[in-house]
Amino acid sequence: MASQLKVDTITGVSTAGSIAVTGEGNSTTTNLQQGLCKSWINVDGDASTPSIRDSLNAASLTDTATGRYQLNYTNNFSTAKQQSGAGIARRSGNSQGCIVGLDSQANELRTSDTGFSVTNDAGTLVDQDIATLLLMGDLA
Questions:
Q1: Are 118 and 97 in contact (CB under 8 A)?
Q2: Cβ–Cβ contacts within 10 Å for residue 21, how many?
Q3: pLDDT tens digits for 29-67?
């Protein structure tokens, strides 16, 4: 018989913000909060004014230059340079490879915002139709 659990809030018993989930094989546990994406963004970077298509924990986006952006968080991360992230990008109708990464020319990882850039496979900064970035880490 299938079960269904409906709740609005899950809180750990010993530590409110820490919930362990039993992993595959039933021999290890994973901290649920550590495994959640804390911020992600999908950007229309090819528009005359780049805009956010959809997001989580993204207050605003600033277009700082061709292929360069600054993501400003709604809820800050707890410590600068402690986040981990990944991203992808593509141009409509174009099979050219793209790389999304932290932007060394911008502010990099900070508690309130992150600079990121998009380059083509030749390493040239470009505005792409779709640019996405996701970040993991501890929120303040």
A1: no
A2: 10
A3: 888 887 889 999 999 988 888 999 999 999 999 998 998
Q: Are 78 and 118 in contact (CB under 8 A)?
A: no
Which residues make beta-bridge pairs with 88?
Answer: 132
Q: How many CA atoms lie within 13 A of 33 on its CB side?
A: 12
Q: What does the longest C-alpha to C-alpha distance in the chain come to?
A: 56
Task: Write the CA distances from 94 to 26, 49, 85, 88, 120, integer angstroms.
Answer: 44, 21, 25, 14, 11
Residue type, 14: S
Retrieve residue 65's tokens: 């230059």
Half-sphere exposure of residue 36: CA atoms within 13 angstroms, side-chain side: 14
**Structure pTM?**
0.80
pLDDT over 60 (residue 102): yes
